[in-house]
What we know:
Number of domains of chain A: 1
Largest sheet of chain A: none
Distance between the termini of chain A: 28 Å
Structural class of chain A: mainly alpha
Radius of gyration of chain A: 19 Å
Number of helices of chain A: 12
Oligomer: homodimer
Amino acid sequence: xxxxxxxxxxxxxxxxxxxxxxxxxxxxxxxxxxxxxxxxxxxxxxxxxxxxxxxxxxxxxxxxxxxxxxxxxxxxxxxxxxxxxxxxxxxxxxxxxxxxxxxxxxxxxxxxxxxxxxxxxxxxxxxxxxxxxxxxxxxxxxxxxxxxxxxxxxxxxxxxxxxxxxxxxxxxxxxxxxxxxxxxxxxxxxxxxxxxxxxxxxxxxxxxxxxxxxxxxxxxxxxxxxxxxxxxxxxxxxxxxxxxxxxxxxxxxxxxxxxxxxxxxxxxxxxxxxxxxxxxxxxxxxxxxxxxxxxxxxxxxx
Amino acid sequence: xxxxxxxxxxxxxxxxxxxxxxxxxxxxxxxxxxxxxxxxxxxxxxxxxxxxxxxxxxxxxxxxxxxxxxxxxxxxxxxxxxxxxxxxxxxxxxxxxxxxxxxxxxxxxxxxxxxxxxxxxxxxxxxxxxxxxxxxxxxxxxxxxxxxxxxxxxxxxxxxxxxxxxxxxxxxxxxxxxxxxxxxxxxxxxxxxxxxxxxxxxxxxxxxxxxxxxxxxxxxxxxxxxxxxxxxxxxxxxxxxxxxxxxxxxxxxxxxxxxxxxxxxxxxxxxxxxxxxxxxxxxxxxxxxxxxxxxxxxxxxx
Lengths: 302, 302
């Protein structure tokens, strides 16, 4: 299934999948896009759908005024700042900030957020503890950056798909496929952090807003596909099907089958009860649309 | 939808839903059943299916020899043991052991396992810290009891459904409905603890064995429904659909719609791609079979 492999590979590299903590640092284009979203993108995309992030699935969180955005942090210049390293060389090869995120992700997922100290994160990153506080205000801020990294790429893809005039079922297949693919490929399976109780704090409202907005995109595409209103349960089951990739990986620990994202996307259309629309043509068009999202240029900033 | 309401109500009370930590203590019949499962039930049911708990979805965990079973602990006589209470009266009204489980569940879910001390658990339960160690060897042992309580009732129902000669699609609908119902009704939504990194330890193999066995029951019923072999991804998506109830509750925090379990059960048959079999008759038969599981008597010990 060549087109499927193509889309997965490209979604790992390009703006569709660029913000991968510990793997791919935010580049200038990611930052331009992320800033656009932060300063109006989330609200604008929600507003464009006639939705707000305090919709039925939302947690009714609001960003605190004056708080520094974690998306802004994604876009800091990272080359020259920081204290001397504790150990020479960057474990990720991407600099201190990414080393901290990578080490923290590993510890949060394997030991738990509550049992991970900033000292342990510093050690994992080969840095002094003070360097952690140079880059991040707190352990919470590191967690926020990590979980934002799990939803921003999918949110970015959803934004662009919603602007497309392709049929709903093609776009729904494409979103489920891309989203499941990103969760499938995340080296640390950071989605397990969605269950971290600390995420209930107001300091994580930015993450919940982006995630709610992504889920609302699923609702819109589901409704375009079926032509009928979708209930909260419908949307929850659809999202659950996609996010099950996180649980499936967590449960088995060994690599899950490579065709899982495609199976999830097929199942999304099955759940929508449009059996006649689940065809090779739908898959091919969905894959093509995703591949086109990656093409650089002024026209691609959705 | 009266039959649906009936089955849910009965699954909350009877042996189908009896082992609910902090809500319903294990009664003699629960213990007889649980012991039967512990001393051969899990292996027997897996063996009966030609499956082992180290199957494709399994984590290849084995119980440690000589370790006290948490199922045995479920069945201890709890009335007369323990130190004097720190505060008078049992918060749950069910005695010290259940008070500890209830307080621990609340803290693990809201603060996180890693950030909860046995001192805090004791305080929540209105007991001396020493009392916690009187009832449980460690915080891990409390966690084990809590997560076992989330899967044993569903596993018990699955065991009985597998022994039925009703059509596969009726039994698959019934299992998804009962399982989703139990997750829906769990007062503390303890399923969120499935993501706790501590569960990777060997001391939790009993939980993983029971859970794997439950998932294998889904596989068998899915295959009976479709008449075709089910892949790991098929089973994972089916389980993910049911366990999404946990995530959905976690995400919204407000009560989720009452018809969620029935919608999940319908979606399970939709995912199995048997649209002609998803009928009111299927739902009615599934509900009847579940109601019959609750009837007490010597014939009901599956």
